[in-house]
Design a protein that fits this description.
The structure holds 2 protein chains of 2 kinds. Chain A has one domain (about 30-65, about 75-145). In chain A, about 60% of the residues lie in helices and about 0% in strands. By secondary structure, chain A is mainly α. Chain A starts with about 30 loop residues before the first helix and ends in a 6-residue tail after the last helix. The radius of gyration of chain A is 23 Å and the shape is elongated. In chain A, α1 runs antiparallel to α3 (about 95-125), α2 (about 85-95) packs across α3 and α3 runs antiparallel to α4. The longest helix of chain A is centred in the first third of the chain and has 36 residues, at about 30-65. Chain A has helices spanning about 30-65, 85-95, 95-125, 130-145. Chain A contains 4 helices and no strands. Chain B is globular. The longest helix of chain B has 26 residues, at about 45-70. Chain B is mainly alpha-helical. A two-stranded antiparallel ribbon of chain B has the order 1-2. Chain B has helices at about 5-25, 30-40, 45-70, 75-95, 100-120, 130-135, 155-175, 180-190, 195-220, 225-245, 250-275, and strands at about 140-145, 150. Chain B has one domain. Chain B is built from 11 helices and 2 strands, in the order ααααααββααααα. Classes of the chains: A mainly alpha, B mainly alpha. At the A-B interface, α1, α3 and α4 of A face α1, α3, α4, β1 and α9 of B.
Amino acid sequence: MGLQGKYNPPNPLKGEHKAKNSPFRGLRGFKDKDMQVIIGWILRAGVTISMLIVFIGGIFFIYRHGGSIPDYHVFKGVPWFIHNTNGIINATLNFKGQAIIQLGIILLIATPVIRVAFSAIGFIIEKDYLYTAITLIVLLIIVGSMLSGHAG
Amino acid sequence: MSVIVFTVILLLGSYFAGLLGSLTGLGGGFVIIPLLTLLLHVDIHYAIGASLVSVIATSSGSAAAYVKEGITNIRLGMFLEIATTAGAFTGAIIAIYIPTQFIAILFGLILIFSAIISLRPKAEQIAHRQTWLSKKLKLNGSYPVNDHMVEYGVSNIAGGFFMMIFAGIISGLLGIGSGALKVIAMDGIMRIPFKVSTTTSNFMIGATAAASAVVYLQRGYIHPGLAMPVVIGVLLGAISGSKILVNATSSTSLRWIFAVVITFVAVQMIYNGIAGKI
């Protein structure tokens, strides 16, 4: 820690000045920049589209149930027709507000996961296999969490 | 209270939660969960589910802007996401099995802790030295300051990684972004510049929250009737907050007010938890 605050330039004796993967990523060229643009676009599109779906679902929900009394005091899970994907799709086709909202929320949760998946593709294109592996581990943890059998 | 009145109250409350969360940098979950549980008497599992969804929306929305500016260290974020997603999954599993009153007490404690952290004067210490591991993992980076690129290294990667596992567990357990813990890991332990640590932590929150949200979704913790107003309100509040922040020069007094309010709320959460009312 004694060296903190001092800037150590790349050491030419160790070949750091011409290392292919320079530690200074700002100099690394075009591909990382490309990935940043794509990731930014995915995140923005995912949030915008899912929020729009949630909003539309909200209108249907309030139109149908606006006058009823909500009860969230005791935990009862969610309504039966949105327990699984098939149910949500069927109920969405019947314009059930809560199903449309849930569809939007699932898309919202999927947005960062899609971002992770696209990063993996990006790292493959960059031939950065270390980070392809790291990204796949993250993806595996999220998918593992989804399939972990704690669905209740 | 009818659904429409409840929804409007929740929309307004969530808007202020998002606004405050964005202005103080603590995130909207800190206000949403007490609002739902203490004031509206919503079950804490529902509250955590709704908060988690709003966390994904705000972090993804702002990460989109930061990533394009090239400040976010994507490799560092991806690497640390191994720790945070694994932690978040663990946290979500723990949340299923521990009594809700423990969740409330823990929430109160983390709340007080985060308020203290946000008030503490921060001294930026940037690690310019590059360790063997940070080179191996390609974690060192550079970021733009006044039109020129400033280079930085990353120190104590193992320490930061373990802190991130803990941040992930808290995030999955309480349905918050646990930004304060991530900042400790990055600023305090790994010695990363503030601008990089805040944007990278924000970048990681989405994937971290998704890892526990997939469990919560299947358990029925994410109720559309609650999540809809919360996610819309928090997101709009956070957008307003980011626009105010651009114009404001200092928010020190705001931080103090928020810290006092937060401590009061935290004590309420702990009291209700101990009394078994949550």
